[in-house]
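pls design
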């Protein structure tokens, strides 16, 4: 199953990028993963609610333009449902069986995702009740996608 991550912001620290690249490489054999990064909308240091809303709407337009038709959309958000690795694997398997063209994970900027993207999502996912830096959350997500693929194929990685 083709899988992608559409993420606002860039991994700038080499060790985070290397970790994500390793999981992308591992997945290339069985469950291809692509990562597309977008520049965050520019905001002043103390933005108003209106400025944040406009920035999130702009980011949503850019992300939406890259979501393929019939994709199963998973929005990462703090109010999302936390899932076990097995549950995530089952959701991804089910999406594939139901004819999804691709599984797309959506990661917002520091102010999150626009409500329209959350509303359109097939699943709102929380990686943790704890707050994680975006870079670390991306590494965790890449590892969990790899783990989901390994669970689906019955490998010993998950044991």
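designed seq:
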């Amino acid at each position: 199953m083709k899988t992608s991550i559409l993420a606002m912001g860039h991994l700038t620290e080499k060790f985070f990028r290397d970790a994500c690249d390793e999981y992308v490489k591992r997945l290339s054999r069985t469950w291809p993963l692509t990562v597309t990064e977008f520049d965050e909308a520019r905001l002043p240091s103390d933005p108003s609610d209106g400025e944040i809303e406009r920035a999130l709407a702009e980011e949503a337009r850019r992300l939406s333009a890259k979501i393929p038709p019939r994709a199963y959309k998973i929005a990462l958000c703090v109010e999302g449902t936390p899932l076990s690795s097995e549950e995530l694997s089952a959701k991804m398997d089910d999406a594939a069986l139901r004819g999804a063209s691709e599984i797309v994970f959506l990661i917002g900027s520091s102010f999150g995702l626009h409500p329209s993207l959350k509303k359109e999502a097939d699943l709102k996912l929380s990686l943790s009740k704890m707050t994680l830096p975006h870079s670390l959350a991306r590494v965790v997500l890449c590892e969990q996608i790899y783990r989901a693929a390994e669970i689906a194929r019955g490998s010993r990685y998950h044991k």
